[in-house]
Design brief:
Shape: globular
Number of strands: 18
Bound molecules: flavin-adenine dinucleotide
Largest sheet: 10 strands, mixed
Number of helices: 19
Helix content: 40-55%
Structural class: alpha+beta
Radius of gyration: 23 Å
Strand content: 15-25%
Length: 558
Amino acid sequence: MTSLLSSLHRPQIISKLRDEPYDLIIIGGGITGAGIALDASSRGMKVALVEKNDFASGTSSRSTKLVHGGLRYLKQFEISLVREVGRERATVHKLAPHLVTAEKMLLPITEDGTFGKFSTSIGLMVYDVLAGVEKADQRKMLSKEETLELEPLLNQETVEGSGLYAEYRTDDARLTIEIIKTASKYGATSLNYCEVQDFLYNENGKVEGVKCIDNITKNDFNINGKVVVSAAGPWVDNLREINNSMNEKHLFLSKGVHIVVSHEKFPLIHSVYFDAHDSRMIFAIPRGKITYIGTTDTPYKGNINHIVTNLEDVDYLLEATNIAFPKLSLEEADVISSWAGVRPLIFEDGKDASEISRKDEIFESPNGLLSIAGGKLTGYRKMAEKIVNLTADKLKQDHQLSFKECFTEQIHFSGGPFKDESEVNEFRGKIAERIIIYGLNKYYALYLVANYGKQTEQILDIFLKLDENDVEVRIALAELRFCVHNELTFSILDFFMRRTGRLYFDIKSINKLIEPILEAFKSYFNWTSEKVNAEKMELEKAIFEASNFEYSKHINNE
Ligand SMILES: Cc1cc2nc3c(=O)[nH]c(=O)nc-3n(C[C@H](O)[C@H](O)[C@H](O)COP(=O)(O)OP(=O)(O)OC[C@H]3O[C@@H](n4cnc5c(N)ncnc54)[C@H](O)[C@@H]3O)c2cc1C
């Protein structure tokens, strides 16, 4: 049987997209498109999803990687947004506790800070109530001594105490990919490197499909569908232009950057949400071998297909961090990696980047195209439910088709199911015992289970069959084989950025993996030596751009 997610079955997937009629075509393989694909396919709709680059290559691999309620939106009185995404945190955690893990966040209180002692206490209490946080996880207020004991790197001169509250952490790209894989179990057909270039219209001028180009072979083909939804994130307006349906509503793009330093340089124990020098707030989050810091929030008018971190972004984040954590004295040279993305926000007259609401919105074109933008990673499931409800109404009205109600709050993602976090811990413990015998250290148990959940077993089975002496190379080769067969992985960046996160969280490990991974790609796809060189250069460029910032000025001005 053809696996709909094997990279080796690409021609068969394209034939299926070309030859079969669909109820719903989704443009965009970020978290929004992935969530819609799962919701619609699980209700019984016949679904196609196409992504012009790799899945999650847009904003959905560039976020702070928190499944959070957005405490700061409380300050802007966005009560319904905080309630909705706050409650979603627990749901998404329940669906994939290996991938969405509980993370206590420390909110230091300083004399000139955003929140005083009283407002922090009240604010966090309201946050807990709105988000329905269970008693054991509700906020705790800590004294100065308790705060510094928990996080000794904080500024002893300025910290007056803190609030400790509950959030969740994830890997946005893996979350997106696992949701796409889960949708495939319900019959959704998804394809990356497949770009929508135009729309198909019926005799009444209504949208009834898309014209695509396969970005790997450069062949074009059409897909027919009764409803087309654009979940193209920052590209939503580009598609509305192609569809001749732009109106006064439009996107406002705000750039956000995160920088990565080694955990030795910034040995943070807890995630901290702290004040920057310009009264914005920033996260510092420890994660395995590194700590990452972000984010910035600045209007963006550059090239959305190539967004890079520049020196101003890095200087701003370093200055804020060095003030809040004065023992560090971090410098530009300490930044080993970074990522930059843009938030596809809905423009609001007279508001600047950080004031604009993170609410999502659906635009319906007169010719039937539905577009959805705004929102947050955390709220993807609710966004999907809204637009799939609308799709179901259209399918009922125009085609007399009926579908089930949304039940995605019960669908565990591939990589599970796990009953709860304690079952994940138990599984991780068993994996750790097993891999130590093979010569892999405890870090790999953390990494593999967070990335792949129970699919770690399949990767270890492959690992045992491979003929390679260096165990770190061997595990990467096993991961690659798994990703090629199960996750539509076509390029070296798909692998190092979005399937494994190594470019961000373990950049130093890449060097010795480049050649063996390229060699393996070559054998899977019969790459020519030109293609191998081109892929190697792509990776080198990505590493350079993630860790060198001076040159980027002119790129952002393109
Ligand atoms: C710096 C930053 C930090 C953030 N932090 C958080 C956070 O911690 N928690 C949280 O909940 N949210 C966070 N967000 C918000 C969250 O990341 C976004 O709301 C979410 O990722 C948007 O997903 P999307 O699927 O709508 O867009 P995208 O991920 O950009 O997906 C759209 C996709 O459409 C594809 N596409 C475009 N045009 C075409 C075409 N013609 N044909 C086919 N495909 C096409 C693109 O290639 C892209 O992959 C953050 C955002 C930023 C920028």
